[in-house]
Amino acid sequence: MQLVPEGTPGASVVAVKRVNELGYYNLGLKQLAQHVELTMPRTLAVIKELEIQKDDQYFKEIKIGAQTYKRYSQKAIQHIRESLPSLNMAEVWERHRPRKREVSR
After folding, report:
1. What DSSP state is assigned to residue 51?
2. For residue 9, what pLDDT is reported?
3. Are 41 and 92 in contact, with CB atoms under 8 Å apart?
4. Exposure of 100 by Cβ count < 10 A (0-12 exposed, 13-18 middle, 19+ buried)?
């Protein structure tokens, strides 16, 4: 058996369920940033650039009680590391850096 993306022509459907989602999505932003050797804000800029939070093989929001946690998989580390050499970090940072909010009076 081989896992393929949804909608792959000629692929048969088989149910796949991750029993332990916290085991699969075992990284917070801080841990992810440490693994890819970027600051947390720059890691978040790369996450936005690569649209990692739109792909469930890399990201999931997990709700435990009233709290929701943003968690990343080990595959996110690999994807970011592979993508970094082709990214212009100055441009990525300019597009996605945190902006100061205007204070209205």
Report:
1. T
2. 81
3. no
4. exposed
